[in-house]
Design a protein that fits this description.
four-stranded mixed beta sheet; 4 strands; alpha+beta; 6 helices
Length: 114
Amino acid sequence: IEGAIIENDIVVFASSSCLYCQQAISALKIAGYEPAVVNCTESQRRVLTAKCGSSSVPQVFVKGFFVGGCAEGGMGGLLPLLKSGVIAELMATKSDGLIKSLGGQASHPPSCTS
């Protein structure tokens, strides 16, 4: 889980049978992004539960930040954040800029609850 978050600007933890996951991935692609998609196993869902407090999918991370599910959670949910421009702002920011904005304390991505 951590490796996928660190290695990709956008990662969607998903299930192939989840309509909300398909909607989130489609919305990102329509907006011009190519997210990494991880189809979660049960053990990965347990890790996500420990990290974010929920095993539901999708769980979307942008530049290491948990932005939420399709429409809620995290920083407000992927669809609202795409609409408001927050995703574009996160993507336009270099990773070192994000680290500086966090007070230089980001040797790993922020947790889902921060």
